[in-house]
């Protein structure tokens, strides 16, 4: 069974460091916690940028804690709470650190307690600070996710300080200003060449600073690994992050270490787990190969008033099945409140550790499959903006299919796949050869993806050519109706057009002769107004399906219903040729992961709806017709148990596997299909 590390993040307060250390050791030994990551000068009692004298006080306490932890065979790591600074929060560091320059955003707002990464004063401070922390010889020394060029409240995207503007002036060969740079970056239409150059510069600055920190730390403690917590990749795309260079530069001779966010610091609607799953998988997909992935479990503000034990359990399970190697646990506050107040979190984690360890074993020996989603870490370079755009409009929007597909029991993946779902402008980040390769496989497009392909000159590979786009509110259209594809007649199976997406944009297609129409848009008289879902086998041999809705910004709840569930299942099966396809049956909102290995397919299914599922079944396809030899389910003890099932073969490598196994609300199961 694969090794699994629980990493407890706990504040080390100077006013009771020995007491806190003894408490942490007690609970680590009781609940099988493998490592402690000491948070330093965090949150409510943070003094901002601690002085070197203050850090020396922390280092003294850290060395004492290290001795106690390692005496009990518990790993010792350090997580300073601040690098560039998360937010001002009423602090003003300008008079304390007079040699620092502070962060400026695109609108000219200036921070008082968040530094500019090009500031020589800040670079001197961060290097000396991390050298001091390294003198306690931690296993991992972390950089927080405030090591970024956005979200430094009251500022957002930057840094547009005078130092950055001067540096950029050297790159372009003449003097410029913050206003001129921003105007070029947000230019409507084809991107101004300055945009990419600006992002390149921002990315290079962070790589260079990482190299300086790595050199300083490893001169003091060569064995210490450096880890970096990261934010949403969509935001990092607007700062030109070079993920590969940044993590490798920071790692030095060690393996890269990342702490990808799992979001949801407090309890929310269980259906938000779809976003958690997608965001974590997206982040993992762009980390350098071999990176140690220590997913971040947060609970803010640190009691069951914020997040239940059950919600926490599901979040951790999703984290491991999405590809995390280990789990960091930020479950207790930074005010020194005793752990015993919420001991139930640790008890749950110990009880299910064998189960989670089996998940990591599965993940290490299988490949995630499903409908592919595209992501490009520099998509913001190529986004075409409209008039009056703001900086946030540069964020990528290529993953709009993730939620509706997953909500209909169809798994998605950022791994290479023969069937891909596309929205937005992401294809602008790929070369023509890459796009033709995509279009020679299976593709599901929304209106925005169809528009992008046509603007790039690929309309000949689509069955529906966009004639016009418009807002639904501007025309009297009532519903989408499914078509009986065998008889090409109406079915009176209607789906609402009201409040489907945030943009409410629709696209009317001109349909090619050899294309098929699977649904149609009708007016108040129930008569045909325009095509709905269009499918087409193009000259490259690719299977392309197009939907007329713009879902690049996501979908609203009215988008989902049983007819759309049926339609998305049919289309996903078709574009994939059933290879790697699965749709879980039994209820709505069943988040599904599929992983394929040698002679086995493993399924993780979680019921995120508020209703129980009476019996789980799934329609599943394989690369070739396979004989299904058996079905097992994983118990929470980590043991596999054989269960009864029935199969029905539809042909075309597609099976229905039916079980009598129920799935309670907000609960999950793992199935293993044994194949011959």
List keywords for this structure.
globular; 7-stranded mixed sheet; alpha/beta; 8-stranded parallel sheet; 676 residues
What does this structure look like?
With 676 residues, the protein is α/β, with parallel strands linked by helices. 29% of the residues lie in helices and 26% in strands. The chain contains 16 helices and 33 strands. An eight-stranded parallel β-sheet has the order 3-2-1-10-9-8-7-6. Strands 13-12-14-15-24-23-20 form a seven-stranded mixed β-sheet. Strands 11-26-27-33-29-30 form a six-stranded antiparallel β-sheet, covered by helices on one side. Helix 9 links the parallel strand 8 (257-260) and strand 9 (292-298). The longest helix is centred in the first third of the chain and has 28 residues, at 193-220. The protein is globular, with a radius of gyration of 26 Å. The mean pLDDT is 96.
- Assembly type of the chains comes to single chain
The percent of residues in helical segments reads 25-40%
* Tally of DSSP β-strands: 33
Kindly report how far apart the N and C termini lie.
24 Å
Structural class: alpha/beta
Query: What is the residue-mean pLDDT, rounded to a whole number?
Result: 96
Broad shape: globular
| Major sheet: arrangement of strands | 3-2-1-10-9-8-7-6
For the biggest sheet, the summary is: 8 strands, parallel
Number of helical stretches of at least 4 residues: 16
DSSP strand content: 25-35%
- What's the gyration radius in Å? 26 Å
Q: Which parts are unreliable, with pLDDT below 50 for 5 consecutive residues or more?
A: none
């Amino acid at each position: 069974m694969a090794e699994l590390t629980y990493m407890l993040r706990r504040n080390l307060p100077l006013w009771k460091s020995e007491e806190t250390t003894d408490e942490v050791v007690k609970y680590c030994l009781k609940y099988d916690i493998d490592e402690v990551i000491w948070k330093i000068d965090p949150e409510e009692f943070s003094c901002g940028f601690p002085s070197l004298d203050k850090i020396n006080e922390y280092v003294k306490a850290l060395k004492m804690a290290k001795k106690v932890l390692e005496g009990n065979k518990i790993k010792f790591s350090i997580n300073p709470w601040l690098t560039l600074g998360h937010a001002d929060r009423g602090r003003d560091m300008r008079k304390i650190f007079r040699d620092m320059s502070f962060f400026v955003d695109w609108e000219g707002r200036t921070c008082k307690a968040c530094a500019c990464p090009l500031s020589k004063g800040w670079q001197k401070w961060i290097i000396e600070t991390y050298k001091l922390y390294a003198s306690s010889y931690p296993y991992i020394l972390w950089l927080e996710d405030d090591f970024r060029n956005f979200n430094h409240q009251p500022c957002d995207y930057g840094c547009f300080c005078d130092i950055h503007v001067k540096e950029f002036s050297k790159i372009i060969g003449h003097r410029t200003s913050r206003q001129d740079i921003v105007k070029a970056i947000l230019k409507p239409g084809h991107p101004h060449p300055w945009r990419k150059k600006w992002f390149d510069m921002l990315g290079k600055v962070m790589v260079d600073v990482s190299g300086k920190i790595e050199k300083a730390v490893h001169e003091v403690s060569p064995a210490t690994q450096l880890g970096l917590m990261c934010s949403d990749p969509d935001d990092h795309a607007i700062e030109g992050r070079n993920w590969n260079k940044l993590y490798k530069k920071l790692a030095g001779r060690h393996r890269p270490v990342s702490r990808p966010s799992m979001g949801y610091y407090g309890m929310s609607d269980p259906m938000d787990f779809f976003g958690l799953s997608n965001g974590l998988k997206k982040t993992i997909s762009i980390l350098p190969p071999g990176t140690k992935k220590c997913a971040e479990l947060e609970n803010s503000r640190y009691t069951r008033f914020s997040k239940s034990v059950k919600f926490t359990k599901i979040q951790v399970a999703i984290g491991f099945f999405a590809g995390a190697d280990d789990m960091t646990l930020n479950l207790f506050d930074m005010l020194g409140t005793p752990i015993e107040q919420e001991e139930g979190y640790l008890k749950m984690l110990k009880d299910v550790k064998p189960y989670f360890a089996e998940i990591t074993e599965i993940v290490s020996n299988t490949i995630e499959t499903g409908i592919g989603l595209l992501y490009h870490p520099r998509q913001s370079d190529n986004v075409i903006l409209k008039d009056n755009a703001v900086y946030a409009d540069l964020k990528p929007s290529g993953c709009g299919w993730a939620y509706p597909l997953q909500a209909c029991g169809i798994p998605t993946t950022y791994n290479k796949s023969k069937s891909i779902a596309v929205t937005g402008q992401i294809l602008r980040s790929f070369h023509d050869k890459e796009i033709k390769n995509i279009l020679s496989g299976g593709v599901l497009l929304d209106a925005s993806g169809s528009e992008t392909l046509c603007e790039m000159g690929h309309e000949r590979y689509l069955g529906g050519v966009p004639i016009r786009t418009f807002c639904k509110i501007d025309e009297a259209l009532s519903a989408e109706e499914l078509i009986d594809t065998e008889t090409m007649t109406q079915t009176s199976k209607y789906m609402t057009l009201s409040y489907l997406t945030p943009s409410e944009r629709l696209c009317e297609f001109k349909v090619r002769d050899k294309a098929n129409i699977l649904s149609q848009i009708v007016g108040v008289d129930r008569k045909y107004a325009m095509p709905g879902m269009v499918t087409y086998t193009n000259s490259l041999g690719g299977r392309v399906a197009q939907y007329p809705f713009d879902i690049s910004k996501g979908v609203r709840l009215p988008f989902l219903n049983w007819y759309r569930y049926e339609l998305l299942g049919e289309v996903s099966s078709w574009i994939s040729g059933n290879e790697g396809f699965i749709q879980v049956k039994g209820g709505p909102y069943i988040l599904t992961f599929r992983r394929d290995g040698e002679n086995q397919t493993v399924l993780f299914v979680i019921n995120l709806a508020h209703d129980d599922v009476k019996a789980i079944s799934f329609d599943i396809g394989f690369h070739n017709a396979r004989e299904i030899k058996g079905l097992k389910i994983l118990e929470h003890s980590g043991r596999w148990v054989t269960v009864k099932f029935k199969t029905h073969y539809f042909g075309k490598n597609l099976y229905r596997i039916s079980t009598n196994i129920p799935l309670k609300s907000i609960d999950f199961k793992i199935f293993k299909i044994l194949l011959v």
